[in-house]
Amino acid sequence: MRSEPLVIDCDPGVDDAVAILLALASPEVELLALTTVAGNKPLETTTRNALRVLALAGREDIPVAAGAARPLVVQRDRNAVVHGEDGLGGAPVPESSAAVVPMHAVDLLAEILERSDEPVLLAPVGPLTNIALLAALRPELLPRLGRVAVMGGSDGTGNVTPAAEFNIWFDPESAARAFDSGLDITMVGLNVTRPSMLFEPDVDRIRSGGRIGAVVAAMLDHYMDWQLKLYGYRGVSVHDALAVATLLRPELVTTVDALVTVDTTAGPARGMTLVDHQRWDGQEANARVGASVDRDAFVTFLCERLASLDA
Questions:
Q1: Which of 83, 104, 222, 239 is catalytic?
Q2: Structural domain of residue 25, as residue ranges?
Q3: Coil/strand/helix, residue 225
Q4: Whole-model pTM above 0.90?
């Protein structure tokens, strides 16, 4: 099987960690690098966590480069408590002995694109600041990107405001630039990640999969405890893992072509992804938008792949 090159741009975060491990467990792709951005936690923490997840999987050979420490326009300081104080739910994830690559994430991504003989898959599963910077600084490299699976937005309600999903809300100006860049984007939003939620039997299945599965389950336990406090039930959406899964198994998520516009105003809809299915003004679609998900197939796929890391 030919492995397609992949870069994950992330802000780990529990679901980012699961997404990284899913990629490492999948022969369809070769994970070339992780690039980090501020989002769920400050940049120093998200970068440390990217290194730690690679250490957990025994893949400290994969380079990690730190990127944007703040959004393009409006400063946001965020400490997402659902991910725990350390960002990985307090699970026993080892520290890494590897060093961060001494270059900006955008420069590393540009270097990868310049030397690749084939299109590079991209999974931006945090705020889109690094992607907007790449589009601004090295626009000639964008055609070298293949499919881009963005975890962000919603064709419906948000999760940080009534209108907005967290990743887009954190830096809507960057998101607007990304969607307007001409990239081959699939938007994996809350309207498909929420229905793909894991429940206790699913987490127990992951837990039984081996050493790495036990650590992943410990991360998810913390996440589910917060879900119980906030919503009254124990379940967890591994949003970012579903985005990566769409690059591996596109049939898991049914999509529709649509025009996505990001609200960058200062009003209550800031960060909203307005999904225009009809494209009333005649504009072309700029994204494939997730419309439905085969939840059972995704959960089975995720559990089997995570278990394979310990095989």
A1: 239
A2: 4-308
A3: helix
A4: yes
